[in-house]
Structures are given as structure tokens and as C-alpha cells.
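Fold this sequence, please.
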Amino acid sequence: MAFPSTKHQDQHIYECFCIGTVNKLVDEFDEQDNNNTTYAVLFDGKLPVATARLIQSKTDSLSVRIGRVATLKQYRGQKCGSQVFQALEKMATKSNYKKVIVHAELTAAEFYEKLGSARYGKTYQEDKTDCITLTKTFG
């Protein structure tokens, strides 16, 4: 399910993040999308239905950051987002990382809490949206 960045990743992100929203594809990529980024994409047949990315923390060599978790609207509530998140968590633990960090919109915090993450710090604004950092430490 998870694989390194490919030329087709932009299409998967477009389909999960942008179709049916006001998001533009160019807004969903940043300087952290490169050959060191790992993506997870869940397919229903040939249709990508959920995606997420994993990047190494810039400040802590034992931490990774999982983000850009998105699921097509018609597949929400079917644990697709959980599957891509957990696939990246599994990769992180196999690579001996000790902590996952998530920067999430406040409305999505409960989703990550159900997956074992805990809120860390205060809410903040990002792109005019209330956000919170969540973390999960592996024993």
C-alpha cells in the first residue's frame, strides 16, 4: 500500500484532496514532497480512495511526521484514512522511529486521537484554519 514518491502521486492526491473541494492541486504540494517522501495510497480496484504522506522530522532524528491524510468523500467512514495512516505508522516503527507527529486541523483531531495520538500544545492558525499538533510515541 505504501510506496516512495512517483510521478503518479500528484494524480492520487488530486483525486483525494481536490475533487469536490475548493483545493487546488498546487496547494497540496510543498517543498517536503520530494524523493525522500513516502506515500501510502489505498485503492479500490484502480481508484485511489485514500492517501497520506510520511516525512522525517527536521528537528528530531527519531520522529516522523504523517500528514496530507485524505479520503474521497464517498469512502469516508469506512476506515480508509485509518488504513493509510496505520500503514505509515508501521513503516515508521520498522524503521526504528520512536514518535509520530501530526499537524491537524482542529476538526480532524478526534480522528487522530482514535488512532492513539494525543494533543500536544495549544491550537494555532494555519492558512486561516484552527490547527493542533498531536503526537504518538512508540515503546
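The radius of gyration is 14 Å. The chain has three helices and seven strands.
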